[in-house]
Amino acid sequence: MPISHRSTARTVKKPILSIVVPVYNEEENVRMLFEKIQAVCEPIGETYEVLFVDDGSHDGTFAVLSELSKQKPKLRVIRFQKNAGQTAAMAAGFEFAQGQRIISMDGDLQNDPADIPKLLEKLDEGYDLVCGWRKERQDKFLTRRVPSIVANWIIGKVTGVPIHDNGCSLKAYRASVIKQVPLYGEMHRFIPAMSTVVGARITEIVVTHHPRRFGKSKYGLGRVWRVMLDIIAFKFIISVFASRPNPQKPSLRQRLSNVLFRPKQKAFRVAAFLSLPFFVLGRVLLGSANIAALSCFSLAVALLILAWITENTIQHAKRESSTLDTLERFFIIQCRRRPIRFFGPIGVALFGLGAIFLLTPINSLLPEILNVRYSNPSTIFITSGILVFCSGLFGELITFANAKRVKDYTIETFLNF
Ligand code: UDP
Ligand code: MG
């Protein structure tokens, strides 16, 4: 991510308010949106900037923005080399925003700039984050509103932050707080929950929502699946931050990564190859217990994929190490270890217990001791051990996949910087 242009920052007075707008193929919307924002912000009487982040649009979005930026010094534009996603665009906007207060909103005129003063008022009451709630959401009921209601309910339960509308982009932030919040993958939907990591005070207010008039939505039903995966990943991320040691010791972390992960990678590969015969062994030992045999097989596959992702993540982290900040590097390293730390030992213990029972005379007495008739308890131990272990690996995979997408964008152009 080349950020060298940053040093050429303008010498004008620092704006007090920054409006961040990620846009991807919104050519019919951007001009009108800028004018609406301008009409709302001028009367507030504060210095402000409008920061459009063009997320690698293929249409005329950038042409319109660059034309407009010649007449409007308050319009600043960042253009990505290629599409990196809404979260990355928002992260770039937050990074380059100069204001002490930041507003984020969609670039398709679905959010209404007229709500900005209301959000700021709430922010001034002492909150660090004010979320918009599209109570009267103007999107399709079955494919958009229902999944959103369910997802928001689950997110509320999982994260403990009961916001009605996590997906609403119209939000107000205290810059010093949002700049500390790490954003990963498609995690802009988890900003409220993620902000609790840095101790943010959060509230929400009802905002206006309009149907989309120009252009198309960038998301389909696939979003439902991705949000579900993100919820699981988020749970892990939060557990990582909850047990965060003193972040003032980068050298120790560096040492840890060198000492632990290179040999660990090899260990993963060895384990993967060793676990393939498990599949055969599982069939022989457990016969008709297909679930156990299948678990062994999935263990092998999971280990192989994990080894591959570990390697990729390490390569990625190495290549990008100069642009990753301490927290990100810490995150990448930590999340490699977390789920396995939880599920690994439990899985192995269960597996070991089952194996011991299987190989000793206790095995024939077990059904009587535990009062189970139809299934062999050692089979159950072994199977559940493998399943628990596999779920740890699955958790690792999801966390890794999300960590890998940290701020994956390249900036091509800055205008009015
Ligand atoms: N967006 C983006 N990059 C993407 C997808 C979307 O910058 O890869 C922008 C998009 O241009 C819009 C905002 O994110 O300004 C929300 O997208 P959209 O309106 O498609 O989402 P929806 O309202 O359908 O949830
Ligand atoms: Mg929209």
Question: Could you explain the architecture of this structure?
Answer:
This protein has 417 residues and is an alpha/beta fold. The protein folds into two domains: 16-242, Spore Coat Polysaccharide Biosynthesis Protein SpsA, Chain A (Alpha-Beta Complex); 253-405, no CATH class. It contains 14 helices and eight strands. It has helices at 30-44, 61-71, 86-96, 116-124, 141-159, 175-178, 191-195, 222-242, 250-286, 290-319, 326-335, 338-359, 362-369, 377-404, and strands at 17-23, 48-54, 75-80, 101-104, 129-133, 171-174, 202-206, 411-415. α5 (141-159) packs parallel to α8 and α9 packs antiparallel against α10. Bound molecules: uridine-5'-diphosphate and magnesium ion. Residues 106, 108, 110, 212, 217 line the site of magnesium ion (MG).
Topology, element by element:
Elements: E1 17-23, H1 30-44, E2 48-54, H2 61-71, E3 75-80, H3 86-96, E4 101-104, H4 116-124, E5 129-133, H5 141-159, E6 171-174, H6 175-178, H7 191-195, E7 202-206, H8 222-242, H9 250-286, H10 290-319, H11 326-335, H12 338-359, H13 362-369, H14 377-404, E8 411-415
Parallel strand pairs: 1-2, 1-4, 2-3, 5-7
Antiparallel strand pairs: 3-8, 4-6, 5-6
Helix pairs in contact: 5-8, 8-14, 9-10, 10-14, 12-14
The structure holds uridine-5'-diphosphate and magnesium ion (MG).
